């Protein structure tokens, strides 16, 4: 018996190692730098500096960019409750839908909570590659407006064509002449158009050690797509469409995916008064350079719109408020945003916050 005990004790370290490896592989892998994967990197800031928790936005907020995330009436009711708690006055639901699907979403959101939600429709691209495309799509747009649509979006094109709506219009971009009747009808009906062009620049770059946004870029990579329009080409497409339709209000989602070169976005805003940009889902892409971005907000404070595009979790809203309102430095939100970067607050003044949160949106929504 004594020998058995000695054998067991001698093997205990080995048995412990096997047990830990078998039942706790993520913990073991993440604590070993030689095998640590970039996607599992979760640094903690070491700096003992002020940390701000903002439970509620400083001023009432209109979220110009969200989607029908809540799938049941109970979830929609919970969403409204969270909006009340964090200070979201109204949420714009970008359905990307037409027909019965749009009608159903409208009924569950704006139909049940008028004043708390606006619901925007998509475009019907059916038959876009056949002669005669246009009149039916315009008719469906007009029908959606009669139901209650107050805008169009989110349209989407990352380089292969418009594809966010039910029918994928591969090869047709926003500046295509086939889009003219729809965009002109939007001008006539005072419908703003929310458009997602391209994606962050690192999605188009090689997936290697030099890619600054690799943690997120690999998931959404576009560098391996054949016959895709380049990032610069997509911005050119946006500009041509905005220029050709001066009476149509365009909202370029996510800083037009120019968060890496806001100066270029600024030039577009300078040239085209019918162009706005929402800041949705690009907080992590801009928070690493807070001084430059704060100056950009100051210069273009009349053309930027608050948006989220990240669900309806209370903590998500509060993180966006922290970045916009506080002057906090060097904090991480990796699970929320998917990057390894440390973030910083912009410390925007009240005058700018009021415009970003609400006033700029009201100019568009009230028309």
Short description:
The chain is of the alpha/beta class and 367 residues long.
Explain what you see.
The chain has 367 residues and is α/β, with parallel strands linked by helices. Helix content is 41%, strand content 11%. The protein contains 14 helices and 10 strands. The strands form 3 sheets. It has a 5-stranded parallel β-sheet with strand order 4-7-8-9-10. A 3-stranded parallel β-sheet has the order 1-2-3. Strand 5 (161-162) and strand 6 (169-170) form a beta hairpin. The radius of gyration is 24 Å and the shape is globular.
Q: Can you give the helix content as a percent range?
A: 40-55%
Report the total helices. 14
| Gap from first CA to last CA | 88 Å
Q: SS-based structural class?
A: alpha/beta
* Main beta-sheet annotation: 5 strands, parallel
Helices and strands, in order, run as HHEHEHEHEEEHEHHEHEHHEHHH
DSSP strand count: 10
Using only C-alpha atoms, the radius of gyration works out to 24 Å
Largest sheet strand order? 4-7-8-9-10
Report mean pLDDT, rounded to a whole number.
91
Unreliable residue runs: 1-29
What percentage of amino acids are in beta strands?
5-15%
Shape: globular
